[in-house]
Amino acid sequence: MAVDLLAALAAVDRDLLLRARVKRTGGEVLWFPWYRRRRGGGAFVVGRTIRFTPNWYAASGYGRSSFGDRSRRSTLRWLMHLAHEVGHLPQAERFGHHALGRLRYLLAFAGQYGSRALLGRWPVHDGAPLEREADRGRWVLRELLVQDRRKGLLLVKAVQAGDRDAVLGWLRQSTPLIGQLQTRYDRELAMAR
Ligand SMILES: [Zn+2]
Fold this sequence. Notes:
Number of domains: 1
Largest sheet: 3 strands, mixed
Structural class: mainly alpha
Bound molecules: zinc ion
Number of helices: 9
Helix content: 55-70%
Radius of gyration: 17 Å
């Protein structure tokens, strides 16, 4: 269900998503500069693994940053964040999975963040080209939710309930609009380059 949904939203290869894993990090990697820190904790991709910080799994204990209580709100947060992180999987493929490829991918990020910070370009994290490219799925999902709140709520409820049929039905209905939104995103991305 998650694979079908994320493959459609982010236009990421289904097989790549099937091979991917979602894991929890220890607390020790919180210093990574490429974390999305704004709301406390974040996620990143190493190879084919998407790693989320512990607060994503906690029902409580991280204040407003506890996203593991299985509420509608935390379900939506997970969905949005996954829709972004899966956009990094094809990038990691591009750089390769041997040690050198992984290092080069890491350095490409560090280079993009670092040069943006030095040049005073804002936002440092979300404006980096690799981030913008990875953000397609989240942007599309956000647009869908904004355009039709009632339909968005149906999706979140279906995901929360693990209702595969409802999610696939929603997806079938939304396919034309998702395609239009992706085209729009890719066009704007190309113009920004
Ligand atoms: Zn990212």
